[in-house]
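G., the chain you wanted modeled:
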Amino acid sequence: MSQDIVLVLRALGLGDLLTGIPALRGLRRAYPDAHLVLATPERFADLAMLSGAVDEVHPTPGLGQLAPLRDTPALAVNLHGSGPESLADLVALNPRTLLSHRHDAYPDLTGPRWRTDLHEVDRWCGLLEWAGIPCDPEDLTISRPPGQPDRSSAVVIHPGAAYGARRWPAERFATVAAALHDGGSDVVITGDHSEVELARSVAEMAGLPQTRVLAGTLGLLELVALIHDCRLLICGDTGVGHIATATGTPSVLLFGPTPPSRWGPRGAGPHIAVWAGDKGDPHAEDPHPGLLLITVSRVLEASRNLLRECA
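Predicted structure as tokens:
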């Protein structure tokens, strides 16, 4: 007799996956005997499995690209968005039950209304709780990936972000990097393959050797291990910041167009979210004016305080 399949759609970015872990674990506890399948980009497969909530990753680059499963899902859960595109993907699989926020395009589908004022973690836990599935919004922790080198002396600076609106200027990151290096910190610069030149420019402006640039050299689990081990992470509103939340690593996180009440660290922990109070379009090309109000001195003060407190 085959297992029931619970399919979860969350074909988004790194931060989206990590903020969805409490909901995934709630589903795992509610359906311990089911085969829980996560539709998410293939590059996140190892991290999704590390969460302990998922039995299988169904590689899905984005909306409109959800391939059929081998069997009809007993339950499909929309942890992707408000619809209607994500709902269309799941309805096409003809699941026996579909759990999602309600949408006018699907009047027969019940569910809670979509709210814009919720933290991302609380949004998806709230969806499950609406369906009677208990969920702990602070159940975010992931374990250290095994077999990775120890970099426990490092201070990690990650200057990149998916959109220009969330990128604090490179020269400001460089000034922070130089000051912390001069104070004795083992500063390294990270980034993905598209951010290598950005990371190199930060190191050059900071007077750091290019050997301190780790951008483009780390796989995802290597990056998770580095952030798990390091003394401090400094970055903008990007997925890497959620790794620090998930690993309990001290972090200084710079927010511009999106307030930390929506995407900042969830619950207590050694994290400082720096925000000037302005809101705007998080997908714009240029740094948001509110982000530019965050000064180097403010970031350095927060960083030094955390380094002292967590020494």
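Strands lie at 5-9, 35-40, 56-59, 75-78, 97-99, 154-158, 186-189, 232-236, 251-255, 271-275.

Shout if anything looks off.
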